Amino acid sequence: MSSVLLIAILGLTAIAFFLMRKGQKGKLPPGPTQLPFFGNALSIGKRPHAKFMEWAKIYGDIMTVRIFNKRIIMINDVNIARDAFNKLPLTGRAYVEPFEVYFKGVDDFPEEVARGVLGSEGQAWVEQRRFTLRHLRDFGFGKHQAMEEHIHEEVRSLLSWVRAQNGQPVGMWRRFAEATSNVLWRIIAGERIHQKQEETAIIESANR
């Protein structure tokens, strides 16, 4: 009985693998071999970014990866990614439970407005992007290098702080929040928010 069950399982696995490979042929970018049911989940290991970089060298700038039942098209080139993110058909957003709960909880605005440029898709994304870029240009975005310089400054500051930790595990959410807030604060107030300042405590309180 056990041998019959084993043969049946192996047969179903082989059929599933064959159908999966047949369905992908000629339709999706290349990628690593996928196991039935698991996809590439068992191959990623503890350092997913390193494995993705390894696969990118083999399969190119655009590749297909599957994590269990979730198929992912990965873009490994910044220029291709920039071009893709400007195309309307590629504005679809993945379902992320915390985001969905948050957006549905905003009652003062229509959902397509509450989602903003990061959470919207389709025509709503086009309108949100146009609105955002128009107002960013009022602050000088695209006219000179001020904003880009602010971003680079915050990136350098963040990297310097990470190196100073000497490889020790650290919580990054606060540092990312500070870097992002500093870029916006430089636009609004013309100065940085330094660590331990009163403004930093206010931002942390607002994020809780």
From TrEMBL:
Top-level taxon of the source organism = Eukaryota
Coiled coil feature spans: none
Its keywords, alphabetically, are:
Iron, Metal-binding
Q: Which InterPro entries match?
A: Cyt_P450, Cytochrome_P450_fam2
Annotated Gene Ontology cellular component terms: cytoplasm
**UniProt record, GO biological process:** organic acid metabolic process; xenobiotic metabolic process
Q: One of this protein's Pfam families, by short name? A: p450
GO terms for MF: heme binding; iron ion binding; oxidoreductase activity, acting on paired donors, with incorporation or reduction of molecular oxygen, reduced flavin or flavoprotein as one donor, and incorporation of one atom of oxygen; steroid hydroxylase activity
Q: Which PANTHER family match?
A: CYTOCHROME P450 306A1, CYTOCHROME P450 508A4-RELATED
Q: Which family does it belong to?
A: Belongs to the cytochrome P450 family.
The protein's name is: Cytochrome P450
Query: What organism does this protein naturally occur in?
Result: Allacma fusca
